Amino acid sequence: MIISHIRKAKMVDKAIITKIYGKSFNAQQAAISVNNLLKTTGSWAYIAKINQLNSNHSIAVAFIIARSIMDEAEILSIGVDNDYLRLGLAKKLMQQAIIEAKSRNGANIFLEVAENNNPARSLYAKLGFKVIGRRKGYYIKSDGSRIDALNFKLKLHR
Q1: Which of 16, 68, 83 is nearest to 7 (CA)?
Q2: Which of 49, 90, 111, 143 is geometrically suited to a Cys-Cys bond with 58, CB 3.0 to 4.6 A?
Q3: What are the catalytic residues?
Q4: Could you tell me the pTM of the whole model?
Q5: What is the pLDDT of residues 15-35, one digit of tens each?
Q6: Do 115 and 105 contact (CB within 8 A), yes or no?
């Protein structure tokens, strides 16, 4: 499988983004969450599609939703279908988000991630993001316990 392309998401992609979001995060709240994220002022999104084996047909398997306000951008959500992890899709989407943020005159891009999400933390560090803060008990795990969120920032050079 190879990435066929990354493109800006359209309204017709909302259903597939919701499906991926539900698999990656909270299936019960997926539709409401995705709808709210996409309606956020200044929001934009991309999807990553891959070619299916032995076919010219491609399917969307990952997304990123972000927003830009003034000279700052924020990654609101990024998700990869669990069946397509470790293919570099999140990295390519993050790189595209950085390009988009710069094109919108962004000086900084922010995001947050659960402290125990080591693959994401590693990716963000490789892309140059630095930890700038912590939100105690921000995320609620399925067992009801809480985990801290780490806040990251990347200074964009225009």
Answers
A1: 16
A2: 49
A3: 112, 124
A4: 0.89
A5: 888 888 888 776 667 777 788
A6: no
